[in-house]
Amino acid sequence: MKDLLEKYKDHVVPAKTQQQLNEPLKDQTGFNAGHEDFLKNLITKLESGELDPHNIETLYNRAVYDKLSEGEQEQTSLTAVNLMSFIRQIQQLWQIDQSATFQIQNLVENVFQMKSKFEEKHGDVYII
What we know:
Blueprint: H1 2-7, H2 15-22, H3 33-48, H4 62-65, H5 70-97, H6 102-122
Helix pairs in contact: 5-6
């Protein structure tokens, strides 16, 4: 393995190839209706500034969050850190070509599942 790495250490990927590698994959199967609505809602909140992917506090539904115990708030915050990581990735990919690429669909599915499972136990603690 070391020999292989040494052999290609100075290799430069042609610009056209790199551009193709950077393009998000397209998926012809599309979203189900619920996930598409979820993505639209998420993008609307991001574009309006209601949700700031770099400020975890903007993700909380304060009416519910403030009623949680300290331990539940900590769990909510830990989950929110992961959700925000996915949301930042969705936002970055959306800015590239504003379509529901395979990567965005996968990330939306992850956010949707994580949020849903958490909120089953703790209530509607997130604004998304």
